[in-house]
Amino acid sequence: MIYAGQSSSLSSAASSLPRRGKHKIFIGMAPGVGKTYRMLEEGQQLKQEGFDVVIGLLETHGREETAEKALGLEQVPLKEINWQGHCLLEMNTEAILARSPQLALVDELAHTNVPSSERIKRYQDVEVILEAGIDVYSTLNIQHLESLNDLVYKISGVVVRERVPDRLLDEADEVVVVDVTPETLQERLQEGRIYAPKKINQALQNFFKRQNLVALRELALREVANNIEENSRSDDSDNHCAIHERVLVCVSTYPNSIQLLRRGARIADQMNGRLFVLFVASPNQFLSKPEALHVETCQHLTHEFEGEFLREESDNVLTAIVNIAKEYKITQIVLGESRRSRWHLLMKGSIIQRLMRCLPTVDLHIIANG
Where are the domains of the chain? Predict the structure, then answer.
């Protein structure tokens, strides 16, 4: 309960709370692309412009160019932690908070802290720093994202044990892809600029195979593009421009829906797009058992094709399709050929023609009944 005279003090207390710091993540397809170097480069530039910049944690991995780029930047002293008879160094979050710079540079966001640390993961330390109003620049490799763990294993055969939640990318104020070609990265590896000489051949034969790097590079670029697009979807502006194709397959209780779904899945795959499948159910009509099983089959197939199944209740199929297309920023719609009589089409008009009028920027694919 708020008593008279309290509102002003509460508002002044709220205004005195620090703003949340801004988080900028430098992400890449693999170690050695130059994430840390780029982070330090931007930190040095801001320092020259008069900003108070410190290094919270830096891992050079013995790379001379990276160490040289850090010269002149203040390093907040690390924390010494004794664990199992060893003295280990970790980022000193409390010291960074006490120092209270404008910007802290924190390397290797996915790092797992020593077991006796106050927080389990380094990204949790970063969140504490951000809550204190301090901006953070950090680095991350694409394979450390939680949702990509299984896919990275399929690509590289490597089980990534240090992972971060995908929300970190969603919540970041800026995400920068630090990109080089697979050939350039392999050259850096062979020149000894990534790992020690004794590790080079093993790395080239395993994680740093060209086909692995090509796949991981595409994964990094696509993930950030998806992140940008998802964030832009929160804006209700009609000027939204889809970065990737979004394919909507409209299914019904007719048997050819399976054919439509497969064709739509192929279109989405060829375009590297996202697949959505829509079934519009009439609220006043119950499905028979065979019809219900058919819809369940469509839903199961959608999940097999890694798509999203949408079920809408509406008496107006056209309106439902248009609303879903706008809500999910659909770029392609797959429909079956109309089964209505020519007289009905002449009098009522084709749903395809009406969709073209309602969604002029969406491409329609009409699949013949066969």
Answer: 16-233, 246-367
